[in-house]
Design brief:
The chain has 649 residues and is mainly beta. Among the domains are: 81-152 and 243-275, no CATH class; 286-316, no CATH class; 327-357, no CATH class; 368-414, no CATH class. 3% of the residues lie in helices and 36% in strands. The protein has 1 helix and 47 strands. The strands form 21 sheets. A 3-stranded antiparallel beta sheet has the order 15-16-17, covered by helices on one side. The chain has a 3-stranded antiparallel beta sheet with strand order 18-19-20, with no helix packed on it. Strand 28 (380-387) and strand 29 form a beta hairpin. The longest helix is centred in the N-terminal third of the chain and has 20 residues, at 2-21.
């Protein structure tokens, strides 16, 4: 019953197919773009049957020289197979990949695991740094997810199936060719039978026309009108073309970012270990990278795995604290008084003290020693003290008895007894005291001359300063006064030829002569005209006034050197203007001479108002109701034409 049902089912399939096929346009059958002929062939050798269609084969007479390449029928060029490469450009350059010597894409500067470490025996796998080829299985084994396994299926043979001809299934998803029958016989159900020329309509058998994606089957034949004709039913069960590849559905990759690729083996898709995922690390993992860092490039930046790629972070494994070759002053004290620090050099990234100390002290503080001094033939000795790290003299260089220190000679020498001006009878100039010291013996009078023997030579008779009896004895119109010749001059401002001499008027003789200046300063008592210093005059103002040296001046706004003094013009043209004290209103003025009013400030008069009163400066006024400066004083008429109205008590 089961056999009958199966046969009936086959008949239904056949007639259904046949009725459909008869409606198909067979004009392009076997031609480019059309369906393939029986046996997966095409009408011309330049065409190839791909997925049931005849396509132009550009790989005619093209043989790829490398096992990792295959020819693409579309362009006729050899291209790398999946996961293989011919140059770096076939790899992911952004991921720092390159094409290795065995034509697999690898990540630069990455150390992956070996096939043994991954427990992989065969196929292409990812070792964390790219694709790794783990080889092929030996004969009789197949690669199943990286493991070489022995097939559990025992294929059948033509003999075991008592088959004489045709292509039959070996029971292990493959077909075997049992040959063809001799002439006059036909292969019917695997048995060669004598052809009768006709067949029973509706019967079927395996034909001889090869079909299937890998030519692994034959078309079944149906008997139609007494003749065997190929049907469209192929015994081939392959679902893919051997050697082809595709991306499967099983996720893979370090972060499940890819899919396992599949290889078509014996017409079936077999999952390989190759993965489309390109991640080289597990997200969140960390490692030490290859980018150098640190002060001396002694470390490497650590890396974080982000989006499957190693990314440098800012954490450096370098621990050096300085740059090799650098120097600095350290913290270890040194020096005789611990005043310095050892210098440091950077070696192997660490600061190391060396023997160079910044301390420059030459002795230990507080130390006292005696040492020789002097560089001459006879040395002295001195005590020296170490203070602040340096030697300082406690006393000068001391010589032995009978010797003295000669600074210029830097040596001890025999004691020298110096000569004096009096010993050498020197009156002027400078002398050598015989001990290396220059002594000044003074100067001669202005009229005398100091000769080479340091003796003052007086002037000849008749010369300035020389002896005379009368004016005729003096040369150059000089005057003879007090037994000496004096230079004539015409007024007080004339310059005299002798240093320290000034032009003075001799009142008794009514002549002008050059006389020596005195040394009495302004404001001090004097006795004669030449007692005062230069630019001062000896005057006695009023009957009560002593003779005093007054400073000469030349204008009312002259700035007198003594406080309270003003420049006033004298009534005597002989003296001109000079500085003398001026009293304020109400102050003592002490004189009734013609010059008395110069003792008072402007617009004030010096007089004794009542008999017995001292001389006082009184304010001038004009009318009786004048407001006097001093309280209790009133403007009164003195009755004198010289004084007029004054503020009086």
């Amino acid at each position: 019953m089961k056999v009958v049902l199966q046969l009936f089912y086959v008949h239904i399939l056949f007639f259904s197919f046949f009725s459909c096929v008869s409606t198909v346009d067979e004009a392009n059958l076997g031609k480019e773009g059309g369906r393939c002929l029986r046996g997966n062939t095409c009408e011309y050798d330049t065409l190839i049957c791909i997925e049931g269609k005849c396509r132009l084969d550009m790989c005619q007479n093209v043989t790829c020289l490398n096992t990792w390449e295959k020819c693409d029928y579309k362009d006729g060029f050899c291209h790398p197979k999946n996961n293989f490469c011919s140059s770096d450009s076939d790899c992911n350059l952004k991921n720092n990949e390159y094409c290795s010597d065995n034509h697999l894409c690898r990540v630069s500067n990455c150390t992956g695991k070996s096939c043994a470490e991954l427990s992989i025996e065969c196929g292409i796998t990812n070792d964390g740094c790219g694709n790794l080829d783990c080889g092929r299985c030996e004969s009789g084994k197949f690669c199943n997810l990286g493991i070489c396994e022995i097939s559990s299926c025992i294929p059948k043979t033509c003999e075991s199936l008592s088959t004489e001809c045709g292509i039959i299934d070996d029971g292990c998803e493959n077909t075997i060719d049992c040959g063809i029958c001799e002439t006059g016989k036909a292969c019917i159900d695997g048995v060669c039978k004598i052809e009768s020329g006709i067949c029973e309509n509706g019967s079927e058998r395996l034909g001889t026309t090869i079909c299937g994606l890998n030519n692994e089957g034959v078309f079944r034949q149906l008997c139609v009108s007494g003749e065997w004709k190929d049907s469209s039913v192929c015994t081939g069960a392959d679902i893919c073309v051997n050697g082809s590849e595709e991306v499967g559905i099983t996720v893979c990759g370090l972060n499940d970012e890819g899919r396992h690729e599949q290889d078509c083996i014996d017409g079936q898709w077999v999952e390989s270990l190759r993965c489309t995922g390109t991640d080289i690390c597990v997200n969140g993992d960390k490692q030490t990278g290859t980018t150098v860092c640190g002060l001396n490039n002694e470390g490497f930046y650590k890396q974080n795995c982000i989006n499957g790629q190693w990314i440098d972070n800012d954490d450096c494994t370098g621990t050096d604290e300085c740059m090799n070759g650098d120097e600095r002053i350290g913290t270890t004290v040194c020096g005789l008084n611990n005043e310095g620090y050892y210098k440091q050099s950077c070696s192997a990234g660490q600061w190391v003290d060396h023997s160079d100390c910044t301390g420059r002290d030459e002795c230990i503080n507080g130390e006292v020693v005696e040492e020789f001094c002097g560089s001459g033939d006879i040395q002295g000795h001195m005590m020296i003290l170490c203070d602040l790290g340096h030697w300082m003299e406690l006393e000068g260089c001391i010589c032995d008895e009978g010797y003295e220190w000669n600074e210029a000679m830097d040596s001890c020498e025999l004691l020298c007894v110096p000569n004096s001006c009096s010993n050498l009878e020197a009156e002027c100039g400078v002398i050598d005291d015989g001990c290396g010291v220059v002594v000044d013996c003074g100067t001669c009078d202005v009229v005398d001359t100091c000769n080479e023997n340091n003796i003052c030579i007086p002037p000849e008779d008749g010369e300035l300063g020389g002896a005379c009896n009368n004016d005729n004895d003096c040369l150059n119109n000089a005057y003879c006064l007090y037994g000496k010749c004096y230079e004539a001059c015409t007024q007080i401002s004339d310059d005299c030829s002798l240093n320290g001499y000034g032009c003075f008027k001799r009142v008794p003789q009514n002549i002008w002569v050059c006389r020596e200046y005195g040394d009495i300063d302004t404001g001090e008592v004097c006795a004669r005209e030449n007692d005062c210093i230069s630019d001062a005059v000896c005057l006695g103002l009023g009957t009560e006034s002593e003779f005093t040296c007054y400073e000469k001046c030349d204008a009312p706004d002259y700035d007198c050197t003594m406080d309270g003094y003003s420049c006033v013009e004298s009534s005597d043209p002989l003296f001109g203007s000079f500085c003398f004290p001026v009293s304020e209103i109400g102050e003592h003025c002490g004189s009734t001479s013609d010059d008395a009013n110069y003792y008072c400030v402007s617009e004030a008069k010096c007089l004794s108002y009542n008999e017995g009163n001292s001389f006082t400066c009184y304010e001038k006024c004009e009318i009786a109701n004048y407001s006097c400066y001093i309280d209790g004083y009133d403007c009164k008429n003195t009755g004198s034409a010289e004084y007029g109205w004054l503020c009086l008590p």
